[in-house]
Structures are given as structure tokens and as C-alpha cells.
Design goal:
The chain has about 280 residues and is an alpha/beta fold. Helices cover about 20% and strands about 30% of the residues. It has one domain: 4-Layer Sandwich (Metallo-beta-lactamase, Chain A), CATH 3.60.15.10. It is built from seven helices and 18 strands. The protein has a seven-stranded mixed beta sheet. A hairpin with a 2-residue loop joins strand 6 and strand 7. Helix 6 packs across helix 7.
């Protein structure tokens, strides 16, 4: 399995790649080309794919982890480039999502042109599904642990009324590596501990070899919507015991979150960045 981070909030100083707040990961596994999330509104993930020599027309399948535009911003452009790859997501990802900020309400949902123009490309996931050999999408995430407190600024419009987001629009991906599991999380709004436990429930008696993606310990670039120090450290301690191998994180985990996790996880924690390559 070969993994390339097409977009994360950061990059190496001398890199010629584009960055913005968002996440997009390209995965090559068993001859399948998978795009996990499509990055932000600046379409940086799409631009970076070209720079990195990744032909988006050859993508076989797209997985959208949830309905926020830092993960779906490049999807419309992708659908214009690639006329065949199915897009897997939860139906609730099409709902109207918002972030409450001091300056007012900000729309952070998907571009409505996606549903209007490309309905035939959208495959809604309402139960665990195997979409390729060794590749599973899981839409129902257990709630044994609390969700990140930094979710507090996120809302969804239901029946014309703004309510706290319950993150029913979130799913995660599992890829089998031999007898072990590699988990891909977009933002982990449902709690990365809940995601890992759900993966273990869906595919029991397997080791969790690695976790890759965001843990949502910070809401965007907001400097007032952080997860509590204790919950970050508790999560790190839990991951240290429950995940056997490396933990790759970034994006909405935030610098503060990574800095708090690092003393606990040490070399097992790696910060992802735009252009990073990981091989399993």
C-alpha cells in the first residue's frame, strides 16, 4: 500500500505544493487508486495531484469522510476531470453545515452543485460496505467515548432549524493489510477512540496496525475552539495501548494537539504534511 498526502495544512518550507486548511489522501492498494477526501475550496489537492504526477482520471473510487468543505472543496473539480469514479459518502453529508464564529455563522457544507449535477455518481453508504478487495467503509460509529469538545462550534440545518451537529454524516475507512487493519479518519468528529473501537467491532480479532488522519482537537484555525488538554492526553494514552503501530495525524488535530500527544506517543506519532509519502 502506497499513500500520498495530497493536502494537509502544512508542507516543507521549500515545497512547491499548495496548502490550505483541508485534507486529501491518495492511496494505491492492490491495483486500486483511491481518493480519500478532496481537500479545501482552493482546490489545492487537485493542483497538487498534477504536480506530484498523480493522474486523477485514473482514480477508481472516491471516499468522502464527511460533509465539510475542507474535505469536499475539490470534489466538484475532480468530477469534471474524472467521469467514471463512484463517490461514496453518507447521505447526510449533503446537508447544510455551519460553523459558529464571533463574526457570525459561516457555511462550511458541500457545494450544492455536486448533488445537482452529479447525482448519478454518488453512492450513499448506510451500512458497512466492502467497496474493493480489503477496503471497507463504516458509517455507524459507536459512542462509547465522548466526542471532541472542539465540536462545540459546529452545526447543521435540519428542517430549516440550526441544531448542534451530531456527525451522522461521518464515516471512516478500513484497509486490510495482511491480517491487520489500517484506519483512515477524515476529522474524527465522532471521536478517534470510538472509530478505532468500531473498526475492531466490524472486523474482530485483528490488530490495529495504524491510524491515519485527523482527530479534531481544534476547530479549523479558530484559536478558541480547542479540545481540553486532559481529553487529548487521555486519547493519546488510549491510542498508545490500543494501536500496535504508527499513528499519523495532522489537519484538525492541530499543532497544540500534536504537541500534547507527542510526549506520550513519542516516535509512534508522526505529523502528516502535504506531499508526505507512506508505504506499508
Amino acid at each position: 500500500m502506497e499513500i500520498t498526502v495530497l493536502l494537509e495544512n502544512s508542507k516543507f518550507k521549500n515545497s512547491n505544493l499548495n496548502i490550505e486548511h483541508g485534507l486529501s489522501i491518495f492511496i494505491k492498494k492492490n491495483g486500486n487508486n483511491i481518493l480519500f477526501d478532496a481537500g479545501g475550496l482552493g482546490e489545492s489537492a487537485i493542483k497538487n495531484a498534477e504536480v506530484l504526477g498523480i493522474d486523477l482520471f485514473k482514480i477508481d473510487v472516491v471516499v468522502i469522510s464527511h460533509g465539510h468543505n475542507d474535505h469536499t472543496g475539490g470534489l466538484l473539480k475532480f468530477l469534471q476531470i474524472n467521469d467514471k469514479a463512484p463517490v461514496y459518502l453518507k447521505r447526510e453529508a449533503l446537508n447544510s453545515h455551519y460553523s459558529k464564529r464571533p463574526e457570525g455563522l459561516k457555511y462550511i457544507g458541500m457545494d450544492d452543485q455536486i448533488a445537482k449535477k452529479y447525482t448519478d455518481r454518488l453512492n450513499f453508504v448506510d451500512k458497512t460496505v466492502k467497496i474493493a478487495e480489503g477496503l471497507f467503509l463504516v458509517p455507524d460509529i459507536m459512542d462509547e467515548f465522548s466526542i471532541p469538545s472542539s465540536n462545540c462550534v459546529l452545526y447543521v440545518k435540519e428542517n430549516g432549524e440550526l441544531v448542534r451537529d451530531d456527525f451522522k454524516h461521518e464515516l471512516f475507512m478500513i484497509i486490510e493489510k495482511n491480517d491487520n487493519l489500517v484506519i483512515f479518519s477524515g476529522c474524527g468528529h465522532s471521536g478517534i477512540r470510538n472509530i478505532v473501537n468500531t473498526a475492531r467491532d466490524v472486523l474482530p480479532d485483528r490488530k490495529i496496525e495504524s491510524v491515519i488522519g485527523g482527530f479534531h482537537f481544534q476547530a479549523g484555525s479558530l484559536d478558541y475552539a480547542f479540545a481540553e488538554k486532559e481529553e487529548i492526553e487521555d486519547t493519546a494514552e488510549w491510542l498508545k495501548n490500543e494501536v500496535d503501530g504508527q499513528i499519523y495525524t495532522g489537519h484538525c488535530t492541530g499543532k497544540r494537539g500534536i504537541n500534547l500527544m507527542k510526549p506520550i506517543l513519542k516516535d509512534r506519532l508522526e505529523r502528516i504534511y502535504t506531499g508526505m509519502k507512506i508505504s506499508f
